[in-house]
Amino acid sequence: MPPTHTALICVALPGLAISGEQGQLTGRGLEGFYRGGRRLLSRCQIRIAGREPLAVQARMTGADQARFVGTLRVSPGAGPDPDVVVERTRNADGTERITLHNAGPRPLRLPLEVSLGTDLADLGAVASGRAGPELPASVHDSGLRWSSAGGASVTAHPPPADALASAGLLRWELELPPGGTAGVELRVRPDGAGPLRAVGQAATSPFAPAQAAGDDPRLAALLRAAVDDLQALLLRDPAHPSDTYLAAGAPWRCGMAPAEALAAARMALPLGTRLAAGTLRTLARSQQPGPGPQAGLIPGPLRDAGALLPPACTGTEATLLFPVLLAEARRWGLPEQETQELLPAAERCLTWLRTTVGDGTHLPDPQPGGPVRCETQAHAHRAALLGADLLDAYGRPGGSELRQWAQAARNAFRTGFWVEDRGGGRPAAALAPDGRPLPHLGSAAVHLLDTGLLGAGRLAPGLLDKVQTEQLARLLGGPAMDAGWGLRGLGTKEAGHNPFGHRTGAVRVHETALAVAGLAAAGYDKEASGLLRGLLAAAEHFGHRLPEMFAGEQRSAGRAPLPHPAACRPAATAAASAVLVLTTLAGIRPDAPARTVTLRPVRSAPLGEIGLTGLRVAGAPFAVRVSRLGLAMVEEAANGLQLGV
User: Fold this and answer.
1) How high is the pLDDT of residue 78?
2) 328 within 8 A of 269, measured Cβ to Cβ
3) One of this protein's GO BP terms (predicted)?
4) Which of these, 493, 510, 492, 489, lies nearest to 501 by C-alpha position?
């Protein structure tokens, strides 16, 4: 798999443009323009007066655009200073602008050559090294065309003076007066397709124009990058174009991943409920029909769980997240009609839960002989309590049975899953098929702190008791789990720890954000603040555009976090995590049906004063400010929305 950590990945789905730091598209690795998972152009190299520009800067200017700057010395006797500046602006929509600027005192006549090529390969073939050779080109309109495998073309404006299909070459003679500029625009398109209409660039966005400000200037950049990334990852259900949802991440997972789509939509609720509604409607249409034991299940692929556990079923996670997202979206202001339309799908998820649990107190792994996972019990318990709350709100049966099971699950978990040791104990990662606890400590335990929002600003009870919660907070804030940049996937003292392991030691941004939110909600400000500061420091090194994960090496003076070469960036859950951690600082807990909002800010104010504007609660703009003393004040809210206590 080609590495992604040094790539500049421009995203406006279904379009991608992936570049190296030199700016030239060489056809190596992942480089190229993509649409719908197919590489339309793999090579785009420029030469000016027979030479390649010297690359001096490459940077992202937005989620969908990168800018590359190079220089040349073309005038004899010009000395050490370059006299030509070359700028390339590359967009995920398939356009590239090449601009030459004459910085010298004399007019210049410069030949510009652009060498193009493609293999029209699928992204999967590119990733596995099976892309194949470049295809032959033909001259087409004002550019070149490749006619195999569906076909693609590059057109240029202004048209080139020469086009040589056998070499894949376009050529111009550009006149540049002193201080003047000249440029060429290239447009990459699939055959029969027009300009890319990215979902995230539609006239109406599902995201409110949220902004952050305060004593720490990194907050504004973090939220701005997060919203840009979420916008870039939007997809639309082709059969129901009003329903949008988030792709899991670029470049590897540019399609629907149910568990990640639901988790990201849940964390993004402060930006509005439209994304949640579109995601829920899209996944409701994928539910397994009944009758049968799988009725109500939302299908999902297996996810690697590291060397210590077999792969986990993301379909189980998605099915349990569905009623939770619906219940919480209603609290944030999802209209009653939309909630009621989605209620039957949520009921089917809850029926699947009760059917699968049967007379037991734990939700088993769907694979025969699989383990009983800690995080699955947390998801199931939360779904039961928030689902019961939702059923009661609409006079539907089943709420009391779900609460009774949740109570039994709490009692069983607090004894069966808690492993006593000389350090104070820990929750087991899972129970083996024979009932033996697997005691390794990993970030999956943070899901025990994510209990969910009920009415009147109350959080649902968790599976752990008060003493166990305090011990878990101590463990998560300790050096074995806290890398100084965020939360490791597996503690450093555990067998199989690997700082680059997807689930065995890398810092996963989503679970770090859940830890920050859960610890803060439980009153453990010190541990929450430590993880929050670490994550903010890591984000700064990543240009405030957080990847889904990075290496869990210990932070030390003068070092930067190590990128993971296979991480998606942008990633939906990482971007939405920024929204979660910032709104956690203000402790916003809305109850739109009751027309109240409760504020439970982090009292220690770890980042000083912070202001959040442009959020949405109860369908209206919402703004809040938290002082350096940890006191929160609502600055804008919907008419009639009362401050809860």
Assistant:
1) 66
2) yes
3) carbohydrate metabolic process
4) 489
pLDDT value at residue 200: 76
One-letter amino acid identity for 299? P
Which three-class secondary structure state does DSSP give residue 622?
A: strand
Note the Cα 166 to chain centre separation in Å: 42
Q: Taking Cα atoms as reference points, which of 271, 259, 199 lies closest to residue 576?
A: 271
- CA pair distance 227, 548, nearest whole angstrom: 15
Long-range contacts of 225-228 (CB under 8 A, 24+ apart): 225/63, 225/543, 225/544, 225/545, 225/546, 225/575, 225/578, 226/546, 226/575, 226/576, 226/577, 226/578, 226/579, 227/271, 227/575, 227/579, 228/62, 228/63
Q: How far apart are CA 16 and CA 91, in angstroms?
A: 8
Separation CA 607–CA 585 (nearest Å) = 9
> Where does 533-608 show beta strands of DSSP type E?
549-550, 588-591, 596-599
Cβ neighbourhood burial of 195 (10 Å; 0-12, 13-18, 19+): exposed
What sign results for the dihedral spanned by CA atoms 389, 393, 394, 399? positive
Burial category of 546 from C-beta neighbours within 10 Å (exposed 0-12, middle 13-18, buried 19 and up):
buried
Q: Can you tell me which residue has the tokens 């570049």? A: 19
Closest CA to 583 of 334, 276, 227: 227
Average pLDDT across the chain, whole number: 95
Contact (Cβ atoms closer than 8 angstroms) between residue 610 and residue 586:
yes
Q: Write the single-letter amino acid at 532.
A: L
| Distance (Å, whole) CA 440 – CA 429 | 6
φ/ψ of residue 529, rounded to 5:
-65, -40
Tell me the pairing of strands 596-599 and 642-643: parallel
Query: Which pairs count as long-range contacts for 430-435, CB under 8 Å and 24+ apart, including other chains?
Result: 430/309, 430/371, 430/372, 430/373, 430/374, 431/362, 431/371, 431/372, 432/371, 433/369, 433/370, 433/371
The residues with which 523 forms a beta bridge, in sequence order, are none
DSSP code for 212: E
Instruction: Tell me the pLDDT tens digit for each residue of 133-176.
Output: 999 999 988 999 999 878 999 999 999 999 999 999 999 999 99
Q: Rg of the Cα trace of the chain?
A: 27
Domains and their CATH numbers in the chain: 8-196 (2.70.98.40), 201-636 (1.50.10.10)
